[in-house]
Amino acid sequence: MTIDHVRALAGAALMAALLAVPYVLPALGATFWVDIVAEILIWSLLAASVNLLLGYVGLLSFGQALYFGFGMYGVALSINNWNVGFWPALVIGIVAASAMALVAGVMAVRLTWHYFAIITVVFSLIFYFAAMSMKSLTGGDDGMSFSPPAVFSAGRYTLSLTDATVQYYAILGIVSACFALTALIVNSPLGLSFKAIRENDRRAALIGINVYRTRLIAFVIAGALAGTSGALFAFFGRYASATYMFYHLSGEAVVWAIVGGIGAVLGPLFGVAAFIVFRELVSHAWEHYLIAVGAITILVIMFAPRGLAGAWNDLLQLAMTRGHERPRSGEAFAVGEDG
Amino acid sequence: MGANATALSLSGVTKRFQGLVAVDGVTIDLASGKLNAIIGPNGAGKRRGVSRTLQIKSVFGGLSVIDNVRIAVLSHERIMAPFRPAGSIRAVTACADEIIDEVGLAAHRDAPAATLSYGDVALLEMALALAAQPKLLLLDEPVCGMGPEETEHTVGMIKEISQRIDVILIEHDMEVVFDIANFIMVMAQGAVLATGTAAEIARDPKVQEAYLGSPEDD
After folding, report:
1. What pLDDT digit, counting tens, does each position of B118-141 carry?
2. How far apart, in whole angstroms, are the C-alpha atoms of residue A115 and residue B188?
3. pTM (2 decimals)?
4. Domains and CATH numbers, chain B
């Protein structure tokens, strides 16, 4: 059995566990946790958008909440104003987020590192304050609620989000599709050029890669991921609010992604799961549980710099190559420029 | 490529560093189909004369050797396969493997580039250059930092490559240059001092004075 086999098995087990959630958890008397898992799935897409940029293209964005917000309002506004169905509303949310990412990205991806981080924050702040003040359109602080349309209806047969199981499976389906798509992209020739730019952007440009365009493509894809997350969260909470566009949420997404494991497709899912499960278990008992969250984050960064997913990969490698060959550390940085 | 075609032609190249003239109105004409070499004492201006913008010595450290070359191959092939794993495109992998074999990195095919030795990084850089299917290959001290065995291997490889691609070699190592170059250009003090075959250069009194005759401390 090779490492790839173990990975495939673990992936299948994870998928089976997620599929079983709406039946197993209520049977264990934890119906409430079905919604928690759904929430984890939704947030993991926001963290995945950070991971795509930071882990694959080497761009640290502190503004992904903006596209999350556009996804939310795309859904809420299209349902309230045009009375569209579930799928069109979802698509409108994702398209709105992607379009916003394209506009911001045209300017932002000219820059890298802290300049890039700052411009992404600035963009999200501008739109946060705009959304907060345009109360008639967005509802500002209070947000706006809507009644979600049916996911699917044929004659008398309807699948509605009010059924917790339907809602869970709709979310699981869409989130799984997004992760599968991300996995395909990062392994494609396009994904390889993402990694080339992450490793050494000058060399990548010399070799013939259009660095600007490739970064812009990644930024728009990341915007679409964050937008999908926002759209799903709007359906999940049946409302949209400008408060979710604040950079506080962007920062949380960065922490989730880093703790989960940068540069691993499923890393964000692990990171979000760890934080939300911890919150659910501890926050009732201890008001200041965020202190522990901070401490855990620092420990993870110090002792597992590639996050939970990185630690899992190292363990797997260690277990599989016991005695035979020394495991190669996956950690590798570019050799210095102009060596 | 005709017998009299030119591999590289430069005229009136000048480079100044705040008053210090490193390269002074140099005119270079190197013929195609030969392994040309440019030599000279330190600070002669040989590198500035040719490779003014080609000073990026690095690879994609976190990626495997094969992926490094794959990227280089892919960036020249317009393959539209957004959802296909890059490793599954056979033509690209075959091309990349061929280049890796040619430069002699097959043993390190799947190792991250950052774990390669200094000499192997130089070979990988050559592989990246070859992946672009160049007409002209400018090599700036390719054997720098290599052991005797590695040097021998690399020299043999350069000789082979020069059969089909024009190569201009800039090198400190006299032995290497005199061994493989068909045509040698000697630079000193920012100007061309002499040109000719290895035998002609070795006999040239001007060269002996400026370079070979001077006491070597190392």
Report:
1. 778 888 888 888 888 888 888 887
2. 44
3. 0.83
4. 6-212 (3.40.50.300)
